Amino acid sequence: MKKVLFILGELSDDDIDWLVETGSREEIPAGTVLIHEGQAVNTLYVLLDGTLIVSTAALGGKEIAKLSSGDVVGEMSFIDDRPPSATVRALDEALVLSIPRSELAQKLYQDVGFGSRFYRALAILLSNRLRGTVQQLGYSRDKSQEEEEAAAEAKAPSNVAIAEVRFDWLLRRLRSGEIS
User: How far apart are CA 155 and CA 109, in angstroms?
Assistant: First the structure.
């Protein structure tokens, strides 16, 4: 599932309009580093098109993940205000929605409803990512755990369908250049 669906499914249409109006469309050339490990991040990115590579110095610069359309980047440093623990660069040409940290922080402070929805969405996104990491690490899972996960996915919130429509709408607006 596209990670941005967790966010778009929780936010209202007005919230998404604010993100689009506040953010900017950025075309990122292949090889460009969006986030440098250990250096402050002033932007939250939503990857709309292309592929980003995540690597970490602790593993000698080894690639630890590939991000694709719908992934959110910079959210961990946004939440805990610590420097990023990995470097993120464009594998190929990418298109992102770039949301300035300062404007997002101000919106969260001024609009409690938006803040509640936004932080809930990030919590769901990060919880999902942690579950995926635990699964990748190969911790043993028995049949009942797999059945519980399948049941949870089947009960996925109805807002996922709305989020998919919102993401397609967002992509069309940004690809057409309607948003600068």
Answer: 32
